[in-house]
Amino acid sequence: MRIISGKYKGHKINSKIPTGIRPTQDAIRETIFNILNNYIDFSNLVVADVCAGAGMLGIEAISRGANFVYFVDKSRKSIEFVTHSLKSLNITAEKYKTNNLDAIQFINHIDYNNKNIDSPIFIDLFFLDPPYNTNIVNDVLHKINETNIIDKNGIIVAETSINSVLIIDNQHLEIITERQFGSTKISFVRKL
Predict the structure, then answer these.
(1) Crossing angle of helices 26-36/56-63, nearest 10°?
(2) In a 3-state reduction of DSSP, which class is residue 80?
(3) Are the C-beta atoms of residues 153 and 190 closer than 8 Å to each other?
(4) Within its chain, how far is the Cα of 69 from the centroid?
(5) For residue 47, which of 10, 31, 39, 125 is within the disulfide window of CB 3.0 to 4.6 Å?
(6) How far is Cα 82 from Cα 10, in angstroms, rounded to an integer?
(7) Closest of 167, 161, 165, 156 to residue 181, by C-alpha
(8) What is the side-by-side strand order in the sheet with 46-50?
(9) Is 12 strand, coil or helix?
């Protein structure tokens, strides 16, 4: 796995990927970020890489100038792999936080904290890449609608199987575009 662009362009993550983790392929990741360049400026973004797996989407965001990234996965092996990868690139701890939580727990955690602090945290870019055999994407989108964790015009990038259908609340979210890569579908959703 290589980093496509930015500060760490060309660096490779050579560690053995733990069993059960499916990283986003380099070509798909490159397309995702090329599309995102049309909608956002990466400098100073707060990013969440949820169901992070190998963490390559979040690492790519840091490389491109994101201010801070939450790496979220319920798998301890995944979080350990991401932590090792970040340290191997000498990315400082001020740039990220790892969270051994599932997607809904993470959203509840950020929402709870936002209600109890003077300066709430708003996420500008939310990557969601759950295992294809689960159907949690719509549950996560529904939970995002119930909370105020995504900034207005924030983008959610959901990676699913091509058979998945996103259920969108058109008052709060809109699908900007979708792309298909074999059995994978990438949906770009904007918070209204």
Answers:
(1) 50
(2) helix
(3) yes
(4) 9
(5) 125
(6) 18
(7) 161
(8) 96-99, 68-72, 46-50, 123-128, 150-161, 184-191, 173-181
(9) strand
Q: Calculate the CA 52 to chain-centre distance.
A: 7
Angle at 75 between CA 90 and CA 59, to 5 degrees: 30
Q: Which two tokens stand for residue 11?
A: 């660096």
Which tens digit of pLDDT belongs to each residue from 48-99? 999 999 999 999 999 999 999 999 999 999 999 999 999 999 999 999 999 9
Distant-in-sequence, close-in-space partners of 58: CB < 8 Å, separation ≥ 6: 47, 49, 52, 66, 69, 70, 71, 82, 96, 127
Residues counted in the chain? 192
Neighbours of 79 (CB within 10 A): 19
Whether residue 148 contacts residue 124, with contact meaning beta carbons closer than 8 Å, is answered with: no
DSSP string, 112-178: HHHHTSSS---EEEEEE---TT---HHHHHHHHHHS--EEEEEEEEEEEETT------TTTEEEEEE
What's the angle, vertex CA 144, arms to CA 82 and CA 92, rounded to 5? 25
User: pLDDT tens digit string along 112-127?
Assistant: 888 888 888 899 999 9
CA 162/CA 165 separation, integer angstroms: 8
Amino acid letter for position 93:
A
Identify the pLDDT of residue 171.
83
